[in-house]
Design goal:
Layout: H1 10-18, H2 30-38, E1 45-50, E2 53-62, E3 71-76, H3 83-88, E4 91-96, E5 99-104, E6 111-114, E7 120-124, E8 135-136, E9 150-155, H4 161-164, E10 180-189, E11 193-196, E12 208-211, E13 217-224, E14 237-241, H5 242-252, H6 262-296, E15 298-303, E16 309-316, E17 319-327, E18 333-340, E19 343-351, E20 359-366, E21 369-377, E22 383-390, E23 393-401, E24 407-414, E25 417-425, E26 431-438, E27 441-448, E28 455-461, E29 467-474, E30 482-489, E31 492-500, E32 506-513, E33 516-524, E34 530-537, E35 540-548, E36 554-561, E37 564-573, E38 576-584, E39 587-595, E40 598-603
Parallel strand pairs: 2-8
Antiparallel strand pairs: 1-2, 1-4, 2-3, 3-7, 4-5, 6-7, 9-10, 9-12, 10-11, 11-14, 12-13, 13-14, 15-16, 16-17, 17-18, 18-19, 19-20, 20-21, 21-22, 22-23, 23-24, 24-25, 25-26, 26-27, 27-28, 28-29, 29-30, 30-31, 31-32, 32-33, 33-34, 34-35, 35-36, 36-37, 37-38, 38-39, 39-40
């Protein structure tokens, strides 16, 4: 493993804390976090709440007698659990992975506490404690010094360690007492202690010192040493070597394998007997229930007043229940499926009243109504609808078909009406509409010409399926070119928009009303040259405007009415004025006519 630390950003730290993983006070690299999770370290470390304070303990297999027979034990500090506590308490409660376990201290077990310099307490774990996960001791404890080895300390800090690291924005109470981890190195080793530079806080007493390289235990954290070290960021931490724990404990206990714990055996045997008695009672109760059900719940036949069979199936408390078949008065099958409280409920098949047993519906029911997934059929046997239902109405995703079995619509429904994304098809399989629906009407999407999949319109629709608001209309030509782009009102181009020739050149752009040119606008020739710049009324040129011929030269400047020159105006010929005056119905009225340079007054024609 590389000694250089790879720091995580605060978002990753927050994510790991939120996931309740071991989060380092000096954040660990991702790969170490993953290894700790895989080793299930958090299932081997427990939280102790004693006299309103937090402390840590852990579960470990110790080779007290020899390496083949290891004692399962709880290990913590003497200043956490001392002799007085053990004498005056009947049980010890430990929280492991957010689940509380109770250890009965009155059951015969090996318990030893050392209040000398080594400061540890060891409690033997029995089968009746139901502790499953244990840490292992590193094989090198009797030979290695571990100086400069990377370690980590799982702990339950009473103080919020994230505050000390300035992780701002986090709830300081949320992580108090949560399992977290600190990591660092062993910086010194003597006969009594292991010295380390890991961060530790109130509540870390009793935590294990674990090697990062193999996740095995080499020591028991005691506390801070109160001195500084050049290799440590904080006060030096003190840890008791597991070697010393094993050596001292071996002197107190000679052979843990041969001891017999008769009280524990009695506890286990008594529990087994109680379980067996309960099992027998449960079996007897089940047999009694089966006998009652055999009497109450059985197949029966019901009849119409005319004597014809109306129902054959299971009855419970005089109501149709579970599986059964109902019949029309004509003796034809009406329904074959599941029932509940006299109503169709569950999977079933509904039939037409005919001798051929033609299916009407196959699917699920709820309280007598079609609800859930199911298929409705035409009388010819083809599928009419396949999808979701609610109270006998199409609801949710479904597919609707023509009688010839061609798909008609696929998409979403609400209370029997198309609502949401959906595709409508023509009977030949070509597209009719793709888009969003509201209350069975097209709302926004793409409309197609019949039978050729060419786009007709893209945009919004109103409640009557007419074009509304912004949209685009297209020619039904080979290239499917745009015919109009702009606003609609109740199906007609209105407000502002642009019309196009089939060659994609502009035809008109400007104001519109009810489908007509109305207001200011520009009209073009099919070659793209401007034809007219002025005002319109109900589709005709009316008001002031300029009319151009195809070579883009001005032909007329003046007033129009009903698409004709009318009112004051000037008529041009190759940029030369040939008439200046008033017009009536496209004819000269009063003005000056220029004939080959000679000006002639006109008084009405």
């Amino acid at each position: 493993m590389q000694n250089q630390k790879k720091y995580l950003n605060w978002k990753i730290v927050f994510y790991l804390m939120y996931q309740n993983l071991l989060v380092s006070s000096d954040p660990m690299p991702n790969e170490i976090q993953e290894q700790i999770s895989k080793k299930k370290i958090k299932e081997c470390v427990g939280k102790l709440e004693l006299k309103n304070s937090l402390a840590t303990c852990f579960f470990i297999k110790l080779p007290i007698f020899n390496n083949n027979h290891k004692m399962k034990a709880l290990l913590t500090n003497n200043h956490v659990i001392n002799e007085d506590y053990l004498k005056n308490s009947k049980t010890l409660t430990v929280e492991i992975n957010e689940k509380k376990k109770t250890i009965d201290l009155f059951i015969k077990r090996f318990i030893y506490t050392n209040d000398d310099l080594f400061d540890f307490t060891i409690i033997e774990i029995k089968e009746c404690d139901f502790i499953d996960q244990f840490l292992e001791v590193d094989e090198g404890i009797f030979s290695q010094t571990y100086v400069n080895n990377d370690i980590y300390i799982p702990q339950f800090p009473q103080k919020n360690q994230y505050d000390s690291l300035n992780y701002k924005g986090l709830d300081s109470t949320k992580y108090k007492g949560k399992l977290s981890s600190s990591w660092g190195k062993i910086i010194k080793n003597d006969e009594k202690y292991l010295y380390h530079n890991c961060n530790s806080y109130e509540g870390s007493s009793g935590s294990p010192l674990i090697l990062i390289e193999n996740h095995k235990v080499i020591g028991l954290h005691k506390g801070k040493g109160g001195v500084k070290n050049s290799n440590a960021k904080n006060e030096v931490g003190l840890g008791i070597s597991i070697k010393n724990v094993i050596d001292i404990t071996r002197k107190k206990k000679k052979n843990i394998v041969e001891e017999k714990d008769y009280k524990e055996y009695f506890y286990i045997i008594s529990k087994a007997i109680i379980y067996n008695i309960l099992l027998v009672l449960i079996l007897l109760l089940l047999i009694l229930i089966l006998i009652i059900c055999q009497y109450l719940f059985s197949k029966k036949k019901l009849y119409y007043p005319n004597g014809n069979l109306s129902y054959y199936g299971y009855i419970l408390f005089n109501k149709k229940h579970w599986k059964g078949i109902s019949y029309y008065k004509s003796k034809n099958i009406e329904y074959d499926g599941q029932w509940k409280n006299d109503l169709k409920d569950g999977l079933g098949i509904l039939y037409e009243d005919d001798e051929n047993n033609t299916k009407v519906y196959n699917g699920t029911f709820q309280k007598g109504l079609i609800s859930g997934k199911g298929i409705e059929y035409y009388k010819n046997g083809n599928i009419l609808y396949n999808g979701s239902w609610l109270q006998s109405l199409f609801h949710g995703y479904g597919e609707y078909y023509y009688p010839n079995n061609q798909l008609r619509y696929k998409g979403f429904f609400s209370n029997g009406r198309r609502d949401g994304d959906g595709i409508l098809y023509n009977e030949d399989g070509s597209y009719n509409f793709i888009g969003d629906w509201k209350l069975d009407n097209m709302f926004i999407g793409e409309l197609f010409y019949d039978n050729n999949n060419k786009t007709k319109y893209i945009g919004h629709f109103n409640k009557d399926n007419r074009y509304q608001w912004g949209g685009e209309y297209f020619y039904n030509n080979e290239k499917n070119t745009r015919s109009y782009k702009g606003y609609y009102e109740n199906g007609f181009p209105s407000y502002n928009g642009t019309f196009y020739y089939e060659n994609e050149n502009k035809y008109y752009e400007g104001s519109l009303k009810d489908g007509y040119f109305h207001g200011k606008g520009l009209q073009y020739y099919d070659n793209g040259q401007l034809m007219y710049n002025g005002t319109y009324e109900n589709g005709d040129k009316s008001g002031k405007g300029i009319f151009y011929i195809k070579n883009s030269t001005i032909r007329y400047v003046g007033e129009f009415k009903n698409d004709k020159f009318e009112g004051n105006g000037i008529l041009y010929d190759n940029d030369k004025i040939i008439y200046n005056g008033t017009f009536k119905d496209n004819h000269y009225e009063y003005g000056i006519l220029n004939i080959n340079g000679t000006k002639v007054k006109i008084y009405g024609i």
